[in-house]
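Take a record.
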Amino acid sequence: MISYIIRRLLYAIPILLGVNVITFALFFLVNTPDDMARMQLGAKRVTPEAIAKWKQERGYDKPLLYNADAAGTARLAHTIFFEKSLRMFVFDFGRADDGRDIAREIRLRMGPSLAVAVPAFFVGLLVYITFALGFAFFRATYIDFWGVVMCVAAMSISSMFYIIGGQYLIGKLWHLVPISGFSGGADALRFIVLPVAIGVIGSFGASTRLYRTFFLEEISKDYVRTARAKGLTEMTVLFRHVLKNAMIPILTGVVVAIPFLFIGGLITESFFGIPGLGSYTIDAINSQDFGVVRSMVFIGSLLYIAGLLLTDISYTLVDPRVRLT
């Protein structure tokens, strides 16, 4: 197990390096340091001297990948790629183009993102599994049929409808919760109830239908028929056998959501005015702040790799037949 974990961690290094290279290439294919300077300075007529000063202050006055004027290893070290991207492997994110420390901003904004994403994740998981088990229990009945119809209808509706409709109905007409904003402490509950509810409802159709498929696949297997032949009740079969064995594909799907627990929901945070990492990323994309964009992409990739590793390890806990060798 230890050797497997070490091997997977070593595999993560070239993956993260490749993600950094692709992010760097895509960003600077669209923008140049001069374009970034003009956008940040915000003036209609920016002098070449102002552009040169802005680039020098933020380290964009060097070559992108190779510095022909330097000697030795400095040809690679004294470049924008090395100073802006490779330092992230020691979690040195540097500063944003507006001068603020990126690591500090991440620490400050992680709390609001987790306050919305974590409840939505666990409440949603409980709701989806409960309804999926219910539909599987009443399979081939009207309850199952109309449940699938409800899921397909929910999948056909855009998440924007839930956000705008929830803000208008619950926030503006009924005045039950604020439409947008965020507050710390116990008062934060008023601001996160609606985003959490919309997050759960928005993913209800796809997740419930997927989990129902997992449960139905397990119900048709031989060990379930054997359990019924022994006289076990249907509820016992579902919760003791079907649910346990269906957790492996469920865990595989759940890992996709792990990075969003920290990075936050991009659309949700932007519409509800939550000062989390999701809105921070959207603002950085709009302002073409390469420092923030590359940092968030790096963190997302790192969390996704960590989630995959945790999923493989959790397989051994859910199913003893799985052994990591």
User: Anything to note?
Assistant: The first helix runs from residue 2 to 30.
